[in-house]
Design a protein that fits this description.
binds zinc ion, elongated
Length: 53
Amino acid sequence: MVKSSSRKIILVCEVCLARNYFVNKSTLTQKQRLEIKKFCNSCNQHTLHKETR
Ligand SMILES: [Zn+2]
């Protein structure tokens, strides 16, 4: 049996709030909110992306 310990989260651009990335996050290893610098197509530059539900 496979333990499902990860859940899907959405990363949104902090500048324009576009939902650019969908990732699986392990709830066991990462308890704090994700904050990653990624490229945003709407802003056309690298912006900070934050986890949302
Ligand atoms: Zn953006």
